[in-house]
Amino acid sequence: KQEVTQIPAALSVPEGENLVLNCSFTDSAIYNLQWFRQDPGKGLTSLLLIQSSQREQTSGRLNASLDKSSGRSTLYIAASQPGDSATYLCAPPTGGGSNYKLTFGKGTLLTVNP
Amino acid sequence: DAGITQSPRYKITETGRQVTLMCHQTWSHSYMFWYRQDLGHGLRLIYYSAAADITDKGEVPDGYVVSRSKTENFPLTLESATRSQTSVYFCASSRGNEAFFGQGTRLTVV
Predict the structure, then answer these.
(1) Residue A84, strand partner residues
(2) Alpha-carbon distances of B48 from A9, A93, B52, B91, rounded to whole Å
(3) CB-based contact A36 B101, cutoff 8 Å
(4) Does A103 sit within 8 Å of B45, measured CB to CB?
(5) pLDDT by residue (tens digit) across B36-67?
(6) What's the pLDDT tens digit per position in B13-33?
(7) Which residues, 6 or more positions from A109, have their beta carbon under 8 angstroms from its beta carbon?
(8) What does the alpha-carbon distance between residue A83 and residue B43 come to, in Å, rounded to a whole number?
């Protein structure tokens, strides 16, 4: 069974800081890993998808890395802004064929203060 | 419109009633999922489906039933609603790589 842990559970930073969110998982037999953002009362928005053959994926100020062998992924946010305040979730899929599914961590609640 | 749509967005029902939450996607994605999200528990998988007529239990399936007669639809039924099923329910779809989520259904059982 895939277990996903996200550290820290909550993070409060001043605007402009660079920050790192961590995700660790127990089953490294994954095809890819997806990072999501969730605003309060809203659904999940996909931020980045890293394929298992990649080590990094970038989108704007976001950079995600994946180390399958150690069961870790990191989301780096550069020059944080108040609009980045949200909960960030990682989801490494496991299984294949009819057993393919996503398991989530509990997320990191990020607050960026103006 | 293309995407994944859940209905209703909000629902209040009484204990013991049957209620169905709808999920529709327009991408013809093979995989579809139902999650519930509760404070302190995060997102927990209820049921998932790899294709039409193929479904399987997730982490918390008790009290729920799903069907998938068509690729684009994946309804979730609470056979006899209980207060512990008060939650926010999310549907998602994927073709095996990137997953996309619906807006969620906030269900309150009174």
Answers:
(1) none
(2) 27, 12, 11, 10
(3) yes
(4) yes
(5) 999 888 899 999 999 999 999 999 999 999 99
(6) 999 999 999 999 999 999 999
(7) A9, A10, A11, A87
(8) 23
In chain A, which among 33-62 make CB contacts under 8 A with chain B?
34, 36, 42-46, 49, 51
Pull the structure tokens for residue B57. 């239990």
Model pLDDT, residue A95 = 78
Give me the pLDDT at residue B1, please.
Answer: 58
Rg of chain B, C-alpha, whole Å? 13
Q: What is the mean pLDDT of chain A?
A: 93
| Spatial contact of A7 and A73, defined as CB atoms under 8 Å apart | no
User: Nearest CA to A42 among B11, B102, B36?
Assistant: B102
The encoded tokens of residue A43 equal: 């659904």
> Which residue of chain A is at minimal alpha-carbon distance from B92?
A44
Are A49 and B97 inside 8 Å of each other by CB? yes
Please write the tens of the pLDDT for every residue from A77-112: 999 999 999 999 999 988 777 778 899 999 999 999
3-state class (DSSP) for residue A82: helix
**Residue B66 near residue B76 (C-beta atoms within 8 A):** yes
